[in-house]
């Protein structure tokens, strides 16, 4: 089969690899029908995630058809159409029993495209298949479901729920890429008084308006002053960091009001300053997190009921064999206008 293989920082190839097989009784082998590329994959290619070894197949977001299951799998059968979650859950360890699947210590967590081969391939082995996949309703398309593999639950859990967005809040989302846009979309479920998007790219600020932002701000301007003016000098109730660089995290800590919350969603590859000399006296809460995907069933029900429109994230579509071209488009999102790219199996 063909797969996208990481060969060290800055090096990737679309090459032949052996088809996966069931290695553990709880495994399933899934034919990949639709797959996407995540900003985390770009972090890996920049060398920000040293746990990823050369030779690893990348990717952790896919929709596919079950081909084979191990003898311990009880909820899936060959032919079932499933969402493959970015988080694998053993279902037995302390963290899984608490719903903190991202911290699984039984062999799960974020492993696909990280510690085991991922899903940017024609076929993929999915460990803990019973607890790491979600059967898809017939009325949910592959493309729509794919956005629930990572970006929607990540933004919802790590941004909106960790940030405790409540009705009437002023919410500032710094970074209007796919994660930031998903944070805007899901924050609106809680009726904040206003959602403000901050970015450097005009195209992404326009996208933020389409996803529900009430106000957009160019990050090169006086963002802190603008938020102060908007909130009678208080600052934001919730500031979400959705980029993953030190400057945007630091900006969030300056945007938030006393008693407010900073929810860090972005993946950081470098140290970020934490000015406790200013923050300690302001009762600021800072949260971080790897998505647990406990919200995926809820989001999937909302999607099936027509309450979420996830296909508007998709700006570019490719055949699975066009993986390298898709990476180029996604990597150059400032020029291409890419939000999410989706690659489909060509029948």
Overview in brief:
Helices cover 27% and strands 24% of the residues. By secondary structure, the chain is α/β, with parallel strands linked by helices. Strands 3, 4, 5, 6, 7, 14 and 15 form a seven-stranded mixed beta sheet that branches. A six-stranded parallel beta sheet has the order 10-9-8-11-12-13, with helices on both faces.
Tell me about this structure.
With 347 residues, the chain is of the alpha/beta class. The chain contains 13 helices and 15 strands. The protein has helices at residues 39-45, 94-97, 129-132, 142-146, 151-161, 178-187, 202-210, 223-230, 246-255, 276-279, 296-304, 323-331, 333-336; strands at residues 2-6, 12-16, 28-36, 62-69, 81-84, 123-126, 133-135, 170-174, 194-199, 215-218, 236-241, 256-264, 285-287, 314-319, 340-344. The strands form three sheets. Strands 3, 4, 5, 6, 7, 14 and 15 form a seven-stranded mixed beta sheet that branches. It has a six-stranded parallel beta sheet with strand order 10-9-8-11-12-13, with helices on both faces. Helix 5 (151-161) packs across helix 6. The chain is globular, with a radius of gyration of 20 Å.
């Amino acid at each position: 089969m063909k797969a996208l293989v990481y060969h060290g920082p800055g090096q990737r190839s679309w090459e032949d690899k052996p088809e996966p097989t069931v290695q553990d009784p709880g495994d399933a082998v899934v034919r990949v029908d639709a797959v996407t590329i995540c900003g985390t994959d770009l972090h890996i290619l920049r060398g920000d995630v040293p746990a990823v070894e050369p030779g690893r197949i990348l990717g952790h977001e896919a929709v596919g058809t079950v081909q084979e299951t191990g003898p311990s799998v009880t909820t899936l059968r060959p032919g079932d159409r499933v969402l493959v979650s970015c988080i694998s859950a053993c279902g037995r360890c302390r963290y899984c029993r608490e719903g903190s699947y991202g911290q699984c210590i039984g062999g799960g967590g974020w492993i696909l495209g990280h510690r085991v081969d991922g899903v940017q391939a024609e076929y993929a082995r999915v460990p803990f298949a019973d607890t790491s996949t979600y059967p898809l309703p017939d009325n949910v398309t592959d493309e729509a479901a794919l956005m629930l593999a990572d970006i929607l639950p990540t933004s919802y859990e790590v941004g909106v729920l960790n940030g405790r967005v409540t009705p009437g809040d002023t919410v500032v989302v710094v970074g209007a890429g796919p994660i930031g846009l998903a944070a805007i979309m899901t924050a609106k479920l809680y009726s904040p008084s206003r959602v403000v998007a901050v970015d450097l790219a005009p195209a992404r600020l326009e996208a933020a308006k389409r996803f529900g932002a009430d106000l957009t701000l160019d990050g090169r301007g006086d963002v802190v002053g603008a938020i102060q003016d908007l909130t009678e000098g208080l600052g934001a109730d919730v500031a979400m960091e959705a980029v993953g660089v030190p400057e945007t995290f630091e900006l969030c800590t300056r945007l938030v009001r006393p008693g407010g919350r900073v929810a860090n969603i972005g993946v950081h590859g470098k140290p970020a300053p934490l000015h406790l000399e200013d923050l300690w006296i302001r009762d600021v809460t800072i949260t971080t997190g790897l998505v647990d995907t406990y919200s995926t069933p809820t989001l999937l029900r909302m999607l099936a009921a027509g309450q979420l429109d996830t296909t508007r994230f998709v700006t570019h579509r490719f055949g699975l064999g066009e993986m390298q071209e898709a990476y180029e488009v996604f990597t150059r999102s400032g020029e291409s206008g890419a939000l999410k790219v989706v690659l489909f199996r060509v029948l």
